Amino acid sequence: MIQLLMGKANSSSNLNYSALNLIGKYMSDTIIVIKGSFVPVTVLLTASFLSNKIKKLNILLVIFLSLFLIFYLQDRANCHFLFIGILLSSELLMLLFDRDQSKEFIMIKFIALFIFIISFAGSGLSLYTGVFSLGLLSMTVVTMSSLMSSKSTEVNFKIIALPIILTMSVLFITTNYTPYRDLSEKYINTMFKSPELFGIYSFPQRVQVVDQFMDKAKEIISNDDKVIIVSMPMFYYLLDIKPVISETHDAILGFEQLKKEVIEADPNIIIMPVQSPRGTFWPLANNMNYWTEDGFERTTAHYYEFYRDYISENNLSQVFVNNMFLIYKKQIETGEN
């Protein structure tokens, strides 16, 4: 329990998933939400009061605020913070100025908030995971429904906030929503043939290399083999392989701890990526430079170098390669009489 809360001293700081570290990140992102949404929320509240006093301003205010939020959304890296902030602020305004909401509806709002929270709980990407997993969708729908049924006479936030949130939702989904590390949806049109991936689609080149790898790995790997899969933890599960080091995603381990565990495990099979599995375009040629373009890949480049040295020093031979996967296996030495 202590290790769960405090984390491992031998974990890589890049991927520390201890409860304390994640809670700290979530709190930090929550502060960003509050700070980042202060200006647009202040403008929204002011516009709502003005709209209530001068009805003719409604259309102009909506246009102005839409353009204002579009400007804010240009910061693609953090626009989800603004989106979350606007939703929570709208709910706060309704809580303060619309006291006719039923207890049942308020309970539904708490359920929607709970769905959003559990959609990113445990993720190192924090609140952003709750967005691209569509956990935020429940909050968006409930907030819009709440605005439509609002009866507040003090602040006319229904007319202002509702089209703003709708505009933000459309903009965010059309310009920022990318749930896959893959090509755009129109190219994801080919289903994998491997039974473990039945019903899952990607673009043809990716499907081909993965299916080739899965078929060959099943031929090569037996239950007695000690296997390490480098930077592609999903394949431990797809191939039903028991890891011989303490983390399926090896980069979570600190470098010295990784070396220690690999040497002690004495694997006879090591599976390496030919290209960065973090890139969107693998196994296409335009993904080859992602090793140097991605910050995480640059900071963990020495991990790959260690594996290459280990393979060379321990006489593991290449037994399979395609545009994405390399399988190395230690050959059984036969003594001569």
Helix-strand blueprint:
Blueprint: H1 2-6, H2 19-36, H3 38-53, H4 58-72, H5 79-97, H6 103-120, H7 127-132, H8 135-148, H9 157-175, E1 190-191, E2 201-202, H10 204-220, E3 227-229, H11 234-238, H12 255-265, E4 269-273, H13 290-293, H14 295-299, H15 301-313, E5 316-321, E6 325-330
Parallel strand pairs: 3-4
Antiparallel strand pairs: 1-2, 4-6, 5-6
Helix pairs in contact: 2-5, 3-4, 3-5, 3-9, 4-9, 5-8, 5-9, 6-8, 8-9
Describe the 3D structure:
By secondary structure, the chain is an alpha+beta fold. The protein has 2 domains: 2-175, no CATH class; 187-330, no CATH class. The chain is built from 15 helices and 6 strands. It has helices spanning 2-6, 19-36, 38-53, 58-72, 79-97, 103-120, 127-132, 135-148, 157-175, 204-220, 234-238, 255-265, 290-293, 295-299, 301-313; strands at residues 190-191, 201-202, 227-229, 269-273, 316-321, 325-330. The strands form 2 sheets. It has a 4-stranded mixed beta sheet, with helices on both faces. A hairpin with a 3-residue loop joins strand 5 and strand 6 (325-330). Helix 3 (38-53) packs across helix 5 (79-97) and helix 8 (135-148) runs antiparallel to helix 9. The longest helix has 19 residues, at 79-97. The protein is elongated. The model is unreliable at 1-6 (pLDDT under 50).
Question: Care to give the gist of this entry?
Answer:
By secondary structure, the chain is an alpha+beta fold.
The sequence of SSEs as H and E is HHHHHHHHHEEHEHHEHHHEE
Shape: elongated
Number of strands: 6
- Gyration radius, to the nearest Å? 26 Å
Uncertain residue ranges: 1-6
Overall number of domains: 2
Work out the helix count. Answer: 15
Structural class, judged by helices and strands? alpha+beta
Distance between the termini: 55 Å
**Arithmetic mean pLDDT:** 80
**Percent of residues in beta strands?**
5-15%
Output the strand order for the largest sheet.
Answer: 3-4-6-5
